[in-house]
Design goal:
heterodimer; A: 379 residues; alpha/beta; 12 helices; globular; B: mainly beta; 6% helix; binds zinc ion
Amino acid sequence: MSRRAGIVGVAESDLGKTPHLTVLSQQATASVAALAEAGLGFADVDGLFTAGGWSWSPAIALAEYLGIQPKHLDGTNIGGSSFEAHVGHAVAAIEAGLIDVALIAYGSTQRTDRSRNQPRPATLAEQYERPYGLPTPVGAYALAANRYMYEHGVTSEQMAEVAVSARDWAALNPKAYYRDPITVDDVLASEMICEPLHKLDCCLVTDGGGAVVLAAEDRWPDVAARPVVVLGHGETTTHNGIAQMPDLTVTGAARSGPAAMTMAGVSHTDFDVVEIYDSFTITVLLTLESLGFCKPGEAGDFVRAGRTGPGGEFPMNTNGGGLSYTHPGMYGIFLLIEATRQLRGDFAGARQVTDAELALVHGTGGVLSSTSTVVLGRG
Amino acid sequence: MEIAVDTESREFWDGVAAGELRIQRCEACGHAVFYPRALCPSCHCDRLVWIVASGRGEVYSYTVAHRAFGEFATEAPFTVALVDLDEGVRMLTRIVGGTVAIGDRVELEFATAAGNQLPCFRPVA
Ligand SMILES: [Zn+2]
């Protein structure tokens, strides 16, 4: 049997508005903190994984900045789900004996830069979509939401429950950007951005960075933190532009989810905590169905009345999510950080999911374009 | 918005200038293909020919954008839709000359967005 891989350190950089940081210093501070948690140093890192649009090659730019020359580089960029894919790739490299310690890092200053949606020409396949002016990514998710509501009769009220529960979790997280409780009516009364999505159906726009350190099983005796074992992973893509999505109500989670769960040998009812990329409220409903937690059209009922909130029977997005905690453009790394902390039992009180032993982490990238799923277990 | 017309898209944009919606069809498997490319995404053969679409289709989904960015900001609110052409391909487009619901029939009408002439669709009366 090949040696296992585990997450042995996680950390965020400063979140929210960080004019004192660059995308590189964010990744450096998060990496230092995550390695310190593991009791490891930069000399131990032999695999570097990052994703971003801030350099023609973020992986080599980050390696230079950190002063390391890793023997394994992975700059896979499939949007916000990149970091779940990085975990899968890192585990494969560890199992193959190519590396012992992997560092996954991300940083973004998009809020400070006001860098979203800068003018640039429409190239390649973009020229058939961008000239129509659909705000991206929200407009693409709105198209999916409208189709989903049309097919299944799901309502904006049901969709809003996702944002309400996220905020209830955020109220318990001192690092969350917004912590004041909201109601379904607040969501519906917030500004309409792209029908049917209101402002409070949409993720935040923040700065922030994070880091995750993985180590091979034979290094676990040396590490300071309790390892969280990677039990399974899967990734896929269904399309790039939203017009090419085969079915607006089914995401790649229908493939990456079962792949990860089969590899881990677990099923839906085994999970104690679930972290699902919530770029928009609709993202969560579609993902829950595509992962198979409920049948098509049933996700609205599945998230009803705080079922996914603190104390609910299906604890989900326990840091407040991209909707209320932080969302620096590519949120996936924060799903991994939160799931790791839950499985280690890092928190006190209602913020901690009781006896959390098995977690599902699911990233979505682009405009529902890519998905990657990771199953994590308490070490 | 600047559109970087390239060797694969020129026929499409020449069609727009001529008042036609040009798409491709695969001679091997018969599938219509949009956006234009060098191989058929269904059977992966390269025998693609240009055809002029009928300009009729059905709304698969739509959204009304109340907020838009950059040069599109002053055009909001506007309706963007995914239209399934009768030929069997889906395209992103704008709805002009009325409102639509999912499932409605629509037909081609050229209109301008951010300075570009684009194939858009209007509700069928
Ligand atoms: Zn073909």
